[in-house]
Design goal:
mainly alpha
Length: 339
C-alpha cells in the first residue's frame, strides 16, 4: 500500500466517524433542547418512544432526522458534483451550475410556486426543468457540421442556458403576487431544509444516490480526461461515454438537490478544493472525500441555520458567509492545490 493510499484510508475513516458523531450531536441541537441520553433513547427505541415520549419522538423523527438526512445528501451530492465537473472540465472553478442545471431547476420550482402548486409539484417541476436544462445545453453545444460537442462549446452553452433561466426566474418574480407568492419564491431561492419530509426525500434521494454511484464508478477515468482524446483512447477509455455519464450524473444530483432545498452555493466549489488540498488531485480520492466532507459541512450549516436565532436563516447565506472567508484562508495558507 502506497503512502497516498494509506493517507486516504485513514482520512476516509476519520470522515466516517466524524459524520456519525456530527449527525448524532446535531439531532440533539435545536431551539427545543433534548438531553443527549433522552435523544439516544428515543432514536434507538422507535416503537416505545412513540407512546412514552410522543413530543420527543415527533421532534427527532419528524423534524430533525429528515432535515439531517436531506442536509447530508445535499451536501454530499453538491460536493461530488462539483468535484466531477472540476475534473471533467479541468477547471477548479467549475461548479454544479456549470451546465445551467441549478438555474434551470430553480426556474422549474419558481414556476410551480408562481401557480401556487404544492411542495410535491415544486420538487417535480424543478427536477424536470433541471434535466431539460442539461439537454438544452448539450443540444446548443453540438457542432453544426459534425454533430459532436466539445468542452468549450458545452461550457458556453451552459452559461447561456443559465443566463436564460435566471432571466425567466426574474420574470416570474416580477409577475408574482407581492403579498404571498414573492416572499415564498425569494425564501426558496435562498435555500432551506425546512420543508424536509420523508415523502419528498423518497422522490429526491434515489436520484442523488444513483448520481453518486455513477460518479463513483468512473472516478479513476476522470483522471484520464486531462489527457488528449488519443491518449485516453490508447488507455482504453471511451472519452465521450465518460463525459456523458459525468454530466448526466452531476445533473441528476444537482437537479434533485435544488428541487428539495433550493439553491445552495459554495458547497460544490469549496468542498472539492478542501479534498484536493488534503488528498491531492487524484479523483479516486477526491470523489469519496468530497462525499464525506460535503455531508458533514452541510449538516453543521443546516443545524446552525435552524438554531442560531428564533427564525430560520436561509442556508445559502451561511454557506456564503462561511465559504468565502474559508476559501480565501485555505488558498493563502496552502498556496493552492497539491499536485
Amino acid at each position: 500500500m502506497t503512502k497516498e493510499h494509506r493517507k486516504f484510508y485513514i482520512g476516509i475513516s476519520v470522515l466516517a466517524v466524524l459524520f456519525f458523531v456530527t449527525a448524532l450531536l446535531c439531532l440533539n441541537i435545536g431551539r427545543y433542547h433534548v438531553p443527549l441520553n433522552k435523544m439516544l433513547s428515543v432514536l434507538f427505541n422507535y416503537a416505545d418512544s412513540m407512546s412514552a415520549e410522543p413530543k420527543l419522538h415527533s421532534i427527532v423523527f419528524k423534524i430533525r432526522l429528515p432535515r439531517i438526512l436531506l442536509a447530508a445528501f445535499a451536501g454530499a451530492g453538491l460536493a461530488v458534483a462539483g468535484a466531477a465537473f472540476q475534473a471533467l472540465f479541468s477547471n477548479p472553478l467549475a461548479t454544479p451550475d456549470t451546465l445551467g442545471v441549478a438555474s434551470g431547476a430553480s426556474f422549474g420550482a419558481v414556476a410551480a410556486l408562481l401557480f401556487s402548486l404544492n411542495a410535491l409539484f415544486v420538487q417535480l417541476f424543478a427536477l424536470a426543468a433541471g434535466i431539460a436544462a442539461l439537454f438544452l445545453t448539450v443540444l446548443i453545444g453540438k457542432n453544426k457540421k459534425g454533430g459532436k460537442s466539445n468542452i468549450i462549446m458545452i461550457i458556453l452553452a451552459g452559461m447561456a442556458v443559465s443566463s436564460l433561466s435566471q432571466a425567466l426566474v426574474s420574470l416570474a418574480k416580477y409577475l408574482a403576487d407581492t403579498e404571498e407568492v414573492l416572499p415564498a419564491i425569494t425564501f426558496w431561492l435562498m435555500g432551506s431544509m425546512a420543508s424536509a419530509k420523508y415523502s419528498h426525500l423518497i422522490i429526491g434521494l434515489p436520484f442523488i444516490t444513483i448520481g453518486m454511484l455513477l460518479l463513483w464508478s468512473v472516478r479513476w477515468r476522470l483522471n484520464i480526461l486531462t489527457f488528449s482524446e488519443d491518449e485516453a483512447r490508447s488507455l482504453g477509455v471511451n472519452v465521450k461515454a465518460v463525459r456523458l455519464i459525468t454530466m448526466f450524473s452531476a445533473t441528476l444530483i444537482t437537479a434533485s438537490t435544488v428541487s428539495m432545498c433550493g439553491q445552495v452555493g459554495w458547497v460544490g466549489l469549496l468542498v472539492p478544493h478542501i479534498a484536493r488540498m488534503i488528498f491531492g488531485n487524484n479523483s479516486s480520492f477526491v470523489i469519496p472525500a468530497s462525499v464525506g466532507l460535503g455531508a458533514v459541512l452541510m449538516i453543521i450549516i443546516d443545524t446552525a441555520a435552524r438554531s442560531l436565532i428564533n427564525s430560520e436563516i436561509p442556508v445559502s447565506i451561511l454557506t456564503a458567509a462561511l465559504g468565502a472567508p474559508l476559501f480565501i484562508f485555505l488558498l493563502k495558507k496552502t498556496g493552492g492545490i497539491q499536485s
